[in-house]
Each structure stands twice: as structure tokens, then as C-alpha cells.
């Protein structure tokens, strides 16, 4: 068996990803530059959801926001791991992973561990865990293509998948992020915009209840900017929830026929 | 069309076979099997209480662990394990010891020299199946029949040789690794054991091929493999019989 | 089969769904006797098959293949490597098959599916056959690694092919191979030129830069494309393209791979309770020949569909 797997030669991607120089429009802060895909600053990418993407799962959904494409499968409620202690309420188990080809350079997906726990925390508050005692609901996400705002898309998609699986929730969970680029706030940033952002704010909420389940802020923000960013996100979330709801309604009315 | 074999064998001649049983003290059953310079050691532990992963209340479970001669196990070893597991499962009577696990460990002892040759092939497969089968007998695991594994090499000219050495392998364009049930000595009139018009021993338990060949060439390999089955079965019987109680 | 007696009396009283779950073998055998399968297919018929090319924009070539419910997404990313000393004019292909936890209730994170490395290896064997094993004279694989060379001895392409199973419902290898082949036929090799540091970088086609290394070689030549069909052997029946349920009930599967020049690339039967006799092997090969024509048409249609756009 000696010399079996020939040592894989080191490779590099020929795509010019290393130059993260800010585009020229960015240098004069106040000039009215346009976003790479021509959107307005406060305009989200068109969102698309479809339930029932994975037949083997109890519930699933596929979401596509511009170039960001994710699939979420929900399994369960099913038997908890043997090692788990008895629990009156159900458990939620989340996992997010990246396909190796999801990123511009192969196999450089974001920190999965981190995303998994963020997804868990974002959903935990919305799910009525009392309805499935002693059991576990597994939420697994795979990012097929990373096009920016990956985690918010995963969270929204997961909530649609949970609804598809018939897991009881207080409300749908919608998530949107904004990037701070100099003085401007841009909503639903693309990968390119995320790469040179000064700060990021991600808000996850239950729009009908007007409750926030998760808020993450990184970078430098002033209090006024945070308020502005949150308001932008809250508005976008409630619009997003309408799209999610209509997707679910469509699926439900389609299956009745 | 004749091919001169480096070691002077005829095309249908196998390398010298050797099999010794109960070579390990602690294992419930063991056997070492060698074909020419290739040598494989198989150990069987079990049947033990079923472990959670393979729990099945109605059937026994076979688990195979493949240890390469050197280095770590990779994808190839996972595949060998899967093929071996499914092959052994098909010869064992699984309903006798339900909810148990029997572990078969295959250790490659010698791999017919040549280090320069990249070991992508399945050339160790026949030897390990034969070894595992002898070890299962040694451990007293109930079997439907034995499994006899043979490698056929197909040369560019369409000529088939049996049990090629590694040196010969490099000149072959394709291989068929075949596993058959052993041919039986039966007092029953011929034909009574036939299924769908063919005797059981000509049915294929496992087939793995490597390299592209014409469909006819494959059937040619099958024929030659079946012919060799009888010799191999006789050898197996000889080496397993004397130690059987009674 | 100890159930057969017990189930005989119950079958008339029990609901179909319950009967199917409690006595799956008996349920199927009743269908097989009528030469039909529970999903309405004839025994030798494969499920509906679709291919969508270019599903992933971040890859250089990609395809989504679907047979029945089994779905696979294959994508190729091209990177540059220094060729190995013993083969200065050859590139390299690395094939990896993944079963992420989303695809099946049996896969959990941290506990990878048993089938994944095996299918991965089978795919490598089928697509890269001979390349590693045999000297150049008998090359007969799908892709000539020489086509992946850029600058002899200095640079060559390393093609990373990753196949993700998105939905697992039987015949995984067949769908994976189909998606892999489709991804290769969709592959558009990026145009690169050498920069000052001797590294190759992607340049846009329109710029018309003079140092472009690979002007002509934008598409890979595919010779002898392999296609496969998995069949179940059970008693005298042969069931083509099994679902996950069928695979779990009848444990004997045979996978036949034929290529477009009618060569047998692989005849794979890993054990199983049923023995394969000459006649059933012949039948499986005949079914695969039919299937090869179907798949070739589907692939050709999806490629010509792309060109119209």
C-alpha cells in the first residue's frame, strides 16, 4: 500500500481574490456610487423560497437571494442521543456547513461551528419546545453558494423548513443584515460588499410578535447608526416574512388540490 | 495468443496456495492465507453482543476492519471493508445468532513486493476473502457455503490469465475479481441443486472489475473463473477438513 | 420470509400503508408478481431523469442531476498546480463525494455516511480509470490528463470535482456519475496568463492580452463517456434504478457501467444474498445498454439547451 495516495500537489486558485482593494467609487465617500448589482442602498435582493426541496427530510426549504443559495433540512422530532439526559422539553440541534465550491476559493467556507450556534440561538426562541418533549429536532443547513449575507439567509430558510416540517413555532423567524460602508448603510450586502465593510449588523426577529430573537453587531457603530440599522432590518424582516408566508401558503394550497 | 508467464505458469495455473488455521491464540478464529508472495492474516472475534451501531434484532451483523500493510486506512480500505462485509454477510447464516456482531479483522502481511507500483487495485481482495472465509470456519460461525475468490487478468490481446502477480498486473488492461460459492461434492443426482438452470457454484457472489473491457471478455473471465473454482474449492476442503471435529 | 404466513391472513384487513411497513418484502413480492412496482414503474424502467447545467455560479463547471428524488449537485473548480516530476505534461483530477447531513435522516454531523467514501472511490475509479494504473499507451479513460496541461513542467490544471448529495433516495452512484459527467461537459476552463511572479492569473477574454496561455483549450474533450445503471436482483426479478426503500428490502444490487464505445467499464456486485447467474448478468448489461442511450440523449439535450441561451 506504500506510496498509495500520491501526495497531492499544492494548488492555488488563479482568480484574483487576494486584491481586496476597495473599488474606486469608495474613495470619495459622499459621491453617489452604485452598488455592484445596481441596487439602491436600502433595497434587498429578490428573495426566493421553495419548500420540500429534500424529500428524505421531514421538512425542507431552498432559498435563493441573488447568488446566495442554501438548502435547509429538518429531521424529527426524533429520538435524542442516548447520552442525553431526560428533558421535559424538546431539543434543537443545528448544523451549518458549506459546500467546498460555495466560496470563490475552494473550501474556504466560514466558521461552521460559529454559524451553527448562531443558527441555534436565532431559532431557539421561536420554537415551542414543549410540544416535543424528550425528543430532538435537527436543523441542518448546507450553503451551496455563498453570495453574501449567508447566515441571515440560512436562518430565514431554516424557519421556512421548520414550518414545512410542522414544528410548532410562535412565529416565523426572518433575518436581515446591514453593512456599514463609511457613512452609508447598505442592506442585504453581497459578498463583495461584505469583504470591505466597516461594520455589520444582523437582526433576527419574529415580525408578527415584533420581538427580536437575535442581534449581532460587529465593527464600529455609533448609537444613532445602530438605531437606523435596526429600523432598516426590522422593516425588511417584516417584508421578508410576508414572502416566506406566501411561499408556505402556496405550498399548502398546492398540496390540498 | 499464448502469453508466456514470467514465473512459468500456464494461464490457468494459480500461484501456490497455502492456508493455516488457528494461527492466533486470542481470536475466536483465525487463518492465514497466501497466494504466491501475497499473504493475508484474518482474525474473527465473535459472535459478541450486538453493539448499538449495528443493532438488528433479527439478524447477526458482520463487521470488517481492514488493516493495510503500512500506512493509514483511506477510501480504498473503506471500500474493501464494504465489499468484504457484504460478501461475508451473504455466506453466513445470519439468523442463527440474531442481535450479535462478529468482527473480522484483515491484516495484510505481504503484498507481493513491488513498492513502486501504486496500489490502487483490488489485487488483495481475493486473498483476503479466502482468508476471511477460512477464519470464519475456524471460529465456527455457521455458513451456508464457502466463498472462493479468484482474480482474472485480461491482456490487451484478449487473453485471460488467472491469479496474476503484481508484475504481470502491470501488463494487463483489465481485471475481474470474482467470488463464487464453493463447488460441492454432492451425492445428489446432478441437476437437483440447480437454480434457474445453472448450478449454484456458478452464481456470482461478488464481482468487481477494473479497467474497460468488451462485454464478451467479461463472460470469458467468468468462464475461466468458474473453471478455477473447482480447484480452489478442493484446496479449501483439504485444508479445512482435517481439523473439523468428528 | 418467516412473515409470509403471518401476513397472509392479515393483508386483507390491514391498511395498505401499515402492511407496507410491517411486511415490506411481502408487499413488494405481491407487486412483483404482477410485474409492476409500487411507484407504478415497470421492473426494468428507470425513474424520470433531469439534468440542469450551470447550477453553481461560483464554480467553473457545474450540474444538478436528478433521477427520481435522488438529487446530486456536482461542481468543478479549477486551480493551478505544479505538475508532478514523473508526468510534467499532465494535470490532475480530484473527485470527492459528499453526503451532508441534509440529504438523509441516516447521516448526522460528525458521523459521516458509510457509503460516502465508497461511492467516492468508485467514481474516481470510473472517471479516472487507467490514468494512474496503466501506461499511456492503453489510455482509455474519459479525460486525457494531458489536456489539463498549461505550461509543460511548470503549470497544469488541478480540477477539483465535488459532488454533493442533496437528497438520497437510492441509486446514489448512478446519479453521482451522471452529475459528474454533466459537470465536465459544462466545464468552461478559465483563460489565464502568466504574471511577473510566474503565477497564473485569470484574465478576461475581451481584453485580448497577449500572454494568454490557453486560448484554444477552453473545453475538455470527453472521450468514451461512462453511464451506469444499478439493478436489484431478487429471485427471478430484476429491478432497475431502485429507490432507497427497494435497496433496503432487497439487499443484492448490481451496478453496470458501460461507456459510449460499448466497453464494460465496471460490473460491480458487492455480495448480497442473491447470486448472479450468467443470464441475469446479461439482462443487467442489456438494461444498461438501453439506459445508456436514454442518458446520452438527456445529456445532449441539456447541453444543446445551454447553447441556445
TrEMBL record, chain A:
Cite the InterPro entries for this sequence: ExoRNase_PH_dom1, ExoRNase_PH_dom2, ExoRNase_PH_dom2_sf, PNPase/RNase_PH_dom_sf, Ribosomal_Su5_D2-typ_SF, RNase_PH
Q: Which GO terms describe its biological process?
A: nuclear mRNA surveillance; poly(A)-dependent snoRNA 3'-end processing; rRNA catabolic process; rRNA processing; U4 snRNA 3'-end processing
Annotated stretches, region: Disordered = 1-25
Task: Recite the UniProt keywords alphabetically.
Answer: Cytoplasm, Exosome, Nucleus, RNA-binding, rRNA processing
SUPFAM superfamilies per the UniProt record, alphabetical: Ribonuclease PH domain 2-like (SSF55666), Ribosomal protein S5 domain 2-like (SSF54211)
Family in the record:
Belongs to the RNase PH family.
**Name the record gives this protein:** Exosome complex component RRP41-like
Organism of derivation: Ficus carica (Common fig)
UniProtKB/TrEMBL annotation, chain B:
Enumerate the InterPro entries for this protein: ExoRNase_PH_dom1 (IPR001247), ExoRNase_PH_dom2_sf (IPR036345), PNPase/RNase_PH_dom_sf (IPR027408), Ribosomal_Su5_D2-typ_SF (IPR020568), RNase_PH (IPR050080)
What top-level branch of life does the organism fall under? Eukaryota
Instruction: Show the CDD domains listed in the entry.
Output: RNase_PH_RRP46
Keywords for this entry? Exonuclease, Exosome, Hydrolase, Nuclease, Nucleus, RNA-binding, rRNA processing
Q: Where in the cell is it found?
A: Nucleus, Nucleolus
Q: Which GO terms describe its cellular component?
A: cytoplasmic exosome (RNase complex); nuclear exosome (RNase complex); nucleolus
Which N-terminal stretch is annotated as signal sequence?
none
Q: What is this protein called?
A: Exosome complex exonuclease RRP46 homolog
The organism's lineage? Eukaryota, Viridiplantae, Streptophyta, Embryophyta, Tracheophyta
UniProtKB/TrEMBL annotation, chain C:
Any one GO MF term held by the record is: mRNA 3'-UTR AU-rich region binding
Q: Any stretches that span the bilayer, and where are they?
A: none
Q: Which Gene3D superfamilies match?
A: GHMP Kinase, N-terminal domain (3.30.230.70)
Describe the location of the Exoribonuclease phosphorolytic domain by residue ranges. 46-190, 225-288
Keywords assigned by UniProt, alphabetized: Cytoplasm, Exosome, Nucleus, RNA-binding, rRNA processing
Establish whether keyword Ribosomal protein is in the entry: no
Q: What does the record list as GO biological process? A: exonucleolytic trimming to generate mature 3'-end of 5.8S rRNA from tricistronic rRNA transcript (SSU-rRNA, 5.8S rRNA, LSU-rRNA); nuclear mRNA surveillance; nuclear polyadenylation-dependent rRNA catabolic process; rRNA catabolic process; TRAMP-dependent tRNA surveillance pathway; U1 snRNA 3'-end processing; U4 snRNA 3'-end processing; U5 snRNA 3'-end processing
One GO cellular component term: nuclear exosome (RNase complex)
Q: Which domain of life is it from?
A: Eukaryota
Record localization: Cytoplasm; Nucleus, Nucleolus
Family per UniProt? Belongs to the RNase PH family.
Q: What protein name does the entry list?
A: Ribosomal RNA-processing protein 43
Source species: Ficus carica
Q: What is the lineage of its organism?
A: Eukaryota, Viridiplantae, Streptophyta, Embryophyta, Tracheophyta
